[in-house]
UniProtKB/TrEMBL annotation:
This is Histidine--tRNA ligase. The gene is hisS. Homodimer. It catalyses: tRNA(His) + L-histidine + ATP = L-histidyl-tRNA(His) + AMP + diphosphate + H(+). It comes from the Bacteria. GO terms for molecular function: ATP binding; histidine-tRNA ligase activity. Keywords: Aminoacyl-tRNA synthetase, ATP-binding, Cytoplasm, Ligase, Nucleotide-binding, Protein biosynthesis. One of its GO terms (cellular component) is cytoplasm. L-histidine binds at E82, G83, T84, R114, Q128, E132, R257, Y261, Y262.
Length: 420
């Protein structure tokens, strides 16, 4: 134990469990790579203004949860609390939208930081895989993203998740609804913070989890009744495409999500085995975001899935991913000469793609065989002076216990054959 511990609200990914995290990232990104999304990586921090404008001045993420700081050079930066604003900033900066090939489809994977109250499933440092499709308004694109997330979760074996779907309207109909909702909310008994929220972002009051607020919301005007014809038709197409793809969803009028930039389609993936932190992923359309951060009009849609919570969801469903053992062959040299010879064989095997490890530190046979078994290797390669004098090494199948002497020159080939 060192003097230091991981900071509050964070944890370390450690073998063997860390392999599950890698496999989850891989499983989420695989359908994206297969659907025209290119990999993008942006810095872990950005100008704080990008998030203030992009994510929204009234959101908890910006007002309470951002790790914002001034650098020694006087720059105002923040650790990224989410991915979309950065990805859009990068796409605009590189003029990807001008290359004449819209939508620009991008995926990313990385660490995000929010100063939240830590609890199970809610951390100050967490990991997301995300996807953005920038510059095109097409319900098939919204549907595509939802279908790809569904595919990723199913490929992992998850079943107890639900997809919540809503439309938040656009710049035509949302303001009319917003005004009607504000009128209604101003007539309620609300605390000062919430009244301020009514002024800045009334839709988010609908999302308030407190009983005292929720019970007053019966009879609030419904966005559904205010959606313009274009938004209604758009949403209906998204729903039809999902249904045609066999992806089940629930209409959820209360789904507004915690970020200001969403328009039209919003969705969330919730898992029923996770208690209060049940959202494993979410996203939606953000047609106005580009203009908010100084770009041209670029209607876009995207999502981010939480890696940490997806791992928790796997645990909740009792799913152990089938992760191949990191090591296939473990070499055990007995003596100096064997050490030199087997190290050569190990290097050759590794170069030909066989995952191989070696008993370092001059371990005795018993200890080395223990390490071989712990490594999960299928085969052990053992050689002592007598073997070498006869020009052979012993190849031991660690599952069956069977051991055969193989000519030194043929051992790499024999191992490849055995492992298939
Ligand atoms: P959001 O950007 O808030 O919609 O988050 C998208 C996904 O990221 C969520 O559904 C969670 O899976 C994950 N996520 C967000 N915040 C946290 C957090 N503090 N700790 C762990 N996962 C998080």
């Amino acid at each position: 134990m060192s003097t230091f511990k991981a900071p509050k609200g964070t944890y370390d990914l450690i073998p063997p469990q860390s392999a599950t995290y890698l496999a989850v990232r891989e499983a989420i990104s695989a359908p994206l790579k297969n659907s025209g999304y290119g990999y993008i990586e942006t810095p872990g921090f950005e100008n704080v203004e990008l998030f203030a404008r992009g994510v929204g001045e009234s959101t908890d993420i910006v007002t309470k949860e951002m790790y914002a700081f001034e650098t020694k050079g006087g720059d105002q930066l923040a650790l990224r609390p989410e991915g979309t604003a950065s990805v859009l900033r990068a796409a605009l900066e590189a003029n990807l939208h001008k290359a004449g090939n819209l939508p620009v489809k991008l995926w990313y994977s990385g660490s995000y930081y929010r100063y939240e109250r830590p609890q199970k499933g809610r951390y100050r440092h967490f990991s997301q895989v995300g996807a953005e499709a920038i510059g095109t308004e097409d319900p098939a694109l919204d549907a595509e993203l939802i279908i790809l997330a569904d595919q990723a979760y199913r490929a992992l074996g998850l079943r107890n998740f639900r997809i919540l779907l809503n439309s938040l309207g656009d710049k035509e109909c949302r303001p009319v609804y917003r005004a009607a909702l504000q009128d209604f909310l101003r007539g309620l008994e609300l605390d000062e913070d919430t009244r301020r929220r009514v002024d800045i972002n009334p839709l988010r009051v609908l999302d308030d989890k407190r009983e005292t607020v929720q019970k007053q919301l019966d009879g609030a005007p419904k966005l559904r009744d205010y959606l313009c014809e274009a938004c209604k038709a758009y949403h209906e197409q998204v729903r039809e495409l999902l249904t045609a793809a066999g992806v089940a969803f629930e209409d959820d009028e209360k789904l507004v999500r915690g970020l200001d930039y969403y328009t039209r389609t919003t969705f969330e993936f919730v898992h029923d085995g996770l208690g209060s932190q049940s959202a494993v992923g979410g996203g939606g359309r953000y047609d106005g975001l580009s203009e908010m951060i100084g770009g041209p009009a670029l209607p876009s849609v995207g999502w981010a899935l939480g890696v940490d919570r997806t791992v928790l969801a796997l645990e909740a469903e009792g799913i152990a991913l089938d992760i191949p053992a990191a090591t296939a062959v473990y070499a055990v040299p007995l003596g100096e000469e064997a050490r030199r010879v087997l190290f050569g064989v190990v290097t050759e095997l590794r170069r030909s793609g066989v995952a191989t490890d070696f008993a370092y530190g001059g371990k005795g046979l018993k200890n080395a065989m223990k390490s071989a078994n712990r490594s999960g290797a299928r085969l052990a390669l053992v050689a002592g002076e007598r073997d070498l004098a006869e020009g052979v090494v012993q190849l031991k199948d660690l599952e069956s216990g069977e051991q055969t002497a193989v000519a030194l020159g043929a051992v790499a080939e024999e191992i490849r054959r055995t492992l298939g």
